[in-house]
Design a protein that fits this description.
The chain has a single domain (43-235), classed as Rossmann fold (3-Layer(aba) Sandwich), CATH 3.40.50.720. It has nine helices and six strands, in the order αααβαβαβαβαβαβα. The protein has helices at residues 2-10, 15-39, 42-45, 58-69, 81-93, 116-127, 150-178, 199-219, 251-254; strands at 49-52, 73-78, 104-107, 132-135, 181-186, 224-229. A six-stranded parallel beta sheet has the order 3-2-1-4-5-6, sandwiched between helices. 29% of the residues are buried.
């Protein structure tokens, strides 16, 4: 617990704000746990068409594994075809083909929005419908505001905001027609709280949070639900799968 307090203090958070932040964090963890337990029920995901963006990331690949084991029909999206194929191989090699579906792969890079309409069409043609869209893509930037170019700001907004909302708008008609579906936004606590040196990142996360909050109210009448997950700092593994070497006392600040 002391390390958590120290972590917030290093981030420049006033002491008076630490307790409310901790309450928010633990409430969020409890909510996410319940959502995952409910959502991972095999009876709920079997045969469902689940689209995951940035499926090759740590969180994306773990979601892919869980849904694949649950019998979902996966559409895995990512910016690297080699990594998508590697994920495909790992999923197929460790599963029972009589109980799982072969994942479909779609190349998707939100930093290049020129072909997004073609990608949306390709996703829709995989199974003809989308039951669950998990928007997991994210670009993280930490730097003083004077060191960030406008081009970097635009790229972060493309990946964290314009990409997810464009994809959501693209698959929404498929859900409205069937009067069912779910959007899941994997966002960040910085979509609710702003921290120093995260100007463009926090701005993009605030923007996408607001979009999906508004969307929730608009699509409820069609039987479509919208879930947003605002996680805190993540102690991610390295690209080679090795555990992070960041000292435990610094993890809250150094890793996300």
């Amino acid at each position: 617990m002391n390390s958590i307090f120290l972590g917030f203090q290093k981030m420049g958070v006033p002491s008076v704000m630490v307790l409310p932040l901790l309450i928010v964090v633990f409430a969020g963890v409890y909510y996410v746990y319940n959502e995952v337990m409910r959502f991972m029920s095999k009876s709920m995901v079997r045969n469902k068409v689940v689209v995951i963006t940035d499926a090759v990331s740590g969180m994306g690949s773990e979601c892919a594994r869980l849904f694949h084991e649950g019998g979902a029909r996966l559409v895995l999206c990512g910016p690297s075809w080699d990594k998508l194929e590697s994920l495909y191989d790992s999923l197929c090699s460790g599963s029972d083909p009589s109980k799982t579906f072969t994942p479909k792969l779609v190349l998707l890079d939100f930093s290049d929005m020129e072909n997004i309409s073609d990608v949306i069409t390709e996703i829709g043609e995989c199974y003809g419908c989308v039951d669950v869209l998990i928007c997991n893509s994210s670009m993280k930037v930490k730097a003083p505001v004077q060191n960030l170019s406008l081009e970097m700001d635009k790229t972060v907004m493309d990946v964290n905001y314009f990409g997810p909302i464009t994809l959501a708008k693209g698959v929404l008609p498929l859900m409205i027609t069937r009067r069912m579906g779910q959007f899941v936004l994997v966002n960040s606590i910085q979509g609710k709280l702003a921290l120093p040196f995260r100007t463009c990142y926090a701005a993009s996360k605030h923007a996408v949070q607001a979009f999906f909050d508004c969307l929730r109210a608009e699509v409820e009448e069609y039987g479509i639900s919208v879930s947003t997950i605002s996680h805190t700092f993540i102690n991610a593994v390295a690209e080679n799968g090795a555990p992070s070497q960041t000292p435990s006392t610094n993890r809250l600040w150094a890793c996300e």
